[in-house]
Amino acid sequence: MVARVGIIGAGPSGLAQLHAFEQARSQGAEVPELVCFEKQGDWGGLWNYSWRSGLDEHGDPCHGSMYRYLWSNGPKECLEFADYTFEEHFGRPIPSFPPRAVLEDYILGRAGKSGVRRHIRFNTAVRWVDFDDVARTFLVTVESLDDGVTRTEEFDQVVVASGHFSIPNVPSYPGFDAFPGRIMHSHDFRDSQEFAGKNLLVVGGSYSAEDIALQTKKYGANSVTISYRSAPMEFPWPDGIEELPEMTKADGRTVGFVDGSTRDVDAIIFCTGYKHHFPFIASDLRLATKNVLYPPDLYKGVFFTGNPNLMYLGMQDQFYTFTMFDAEAWYARDYMLGRISLPGREEMEKDIATWRSREGSLADPVEQIDFQADHIDDLLKEVDYPDFDMNLTRDHFKKWEHDKVESIIGYRDRGFSSPCTGTQAPLHHTPWWEAMDDSLPTFLGTAPGYDETGD
């Protein structure tokens, strides 16, 4: 067994890795020394909401892309921890689409119960990761952001759990230098109320564009135009939201599109995705991938083929989130504990090629859901993660896709059953389109003076 494991990031993936080890420890296993480096001042990763954008208080790029009024855009039942259910955490069933504060409370509830905070060094940024070919260990250089002190530590294995939703991909168009309004990426988006009364252009054709268009309109934007490059989402948008093909240029406030149409807008928000960006990792160890369901060079979606003692968690494009992070963390843990052996590099690369070839043939979101579920099943069959109804989560995701097509403003007003307990989720007391307060007490109906009946 290895003696020392370094974990980069204390967001959902890093916390999943720490928790997996704690579960093994509670069952009597000998666990290596764990050191988790977190550059923020608290745990939770992207769920650790901050008003800051651009640079953080230490002069580094802000990690967080979280915004106020974000609600889960998928059923919570499809991300439920099998060993720590929503019912256990909240003491009762809750609706299927919680807001950010509720999900953060749930994530940190399990982390707190398992006592993993003692392994985390906060306000500590990883500046460089390299491998010593002679000693066969990783050299991790970190900076304490509180006092600026830099040091290098040695680890037998390293887990990269820093996520891939913090370095925005921002295109440019002619006329931007003279555009009189705000141009930003969703990474820096914080509060929908900023755009009340404004005419907004949202650039993108996926989940972020969908959600920010809805959020801004819900909180008072005058109009929202969504500009897509490949294909329109074609949801039944509420009045005031429309889709147009790719923009071509800006002329003052007037934006032109490839179909010849124009719109006058006050602000432009890019929802154009993120880069897998690891400048703190030596180039021969650095994952290079686009946002895909099965990245290259990662056996089982986890182990870097050039050096399998370097593991990456949560690097996939995601339908599943916490469920997948747990599966990957359990598998990585069992490799580090010597319970699982990996094949040689050639066999690993053949296995990756098989998965990536299958991904290339996927025709629609239904097939993509099954593909990612199969990836999770492939990991779980070899580890002791608690049983849950994986096939039910597949069905939930497919129904969710249908619900969105039926009502893009109403799909969050549905309830799903837990794959862990079987309990049917209650409906939320207020339709999402009318629910302006996203706080945990209001969502749970426990705010002082709150009355669900409205009396």
Please state the overall shape, judged from the principal axes of the Cα atoms: globular
CATH H-tier superfamily of the largest domain: FAD/NAD(P)-binding domain
User: Helices and strands, in N-to-C order?
Assistant: EHEHHEEEEEEEHEEEEEEEEEHHHHH
Tally of domains? 2
Number of helices, counting only DSSP H or I runs of 4 residues or more:
9
Based on CA atoms alone, the radius of gyration comes out at 22 Å
Tally the beta strands: 18
**CATH topology category name of the largest domain:** FAD/NAD(P)-binding domain
| Overall SS class | alpha/beta
| Average pLDDT, all residues | 95
Low-confidence stretches: 449-455
- Please summarize the sheet with the most strands: 5 strands, parallel
CATH architectural name of the largest domain: 3-Layer(bba) Sandwich
Helix content: 25-40%
The fraction of residues in strands falls at 15-25%
**Adjacency order of strands in the biggest sheet:** 3-2-1-7-18
Description:
The chain has 9 helices and 18 strands. The protein starts with a strand and ends in an 11-residue tail after the last helix. It is of the alpha/beta class and 455 residues long. The C terminus is likely disordered. Helix content is 25%, strand content 18%. Strand 4 and strand 5 form a beta hairpin. The chain folds into 2 domains: 285 residues, FAD/NAD(P)-binding domain (3-Layer(bba) Sandwich), CATH 3.50.50; 95 residues, FAD/NAD(P)-binding domain.
List the helices and strands and how they pair.
Elements: E1 4-8, H1 12-26, E2 33-37, H2 86-90, H3 100-114, E3 120-121, E4 124-132, E5 137-144, E6 150-155, E7 157-160, E8 182-185, E9 199-203, H4 207-218, E10 223-228, E11 241-245, E12 247-251, E13 254-257, E14 262-264, E15 267-270, E16 298-299, E17 303-304, E18 310-312, H5 322-336, H6 345-360, H7 365-380, H8 390-406, H9 440-444
Parallel strand pairs: 1-2, 1-7, 2-3, 7-18, 8-15, 9-10, 9-15, 10-11
Antiparallel strand pairs: 4-5, 5-6, 12-13, 13-14, 16-17
Helix pairs in contact: 1-3, 1-5, 5-7, 7-8
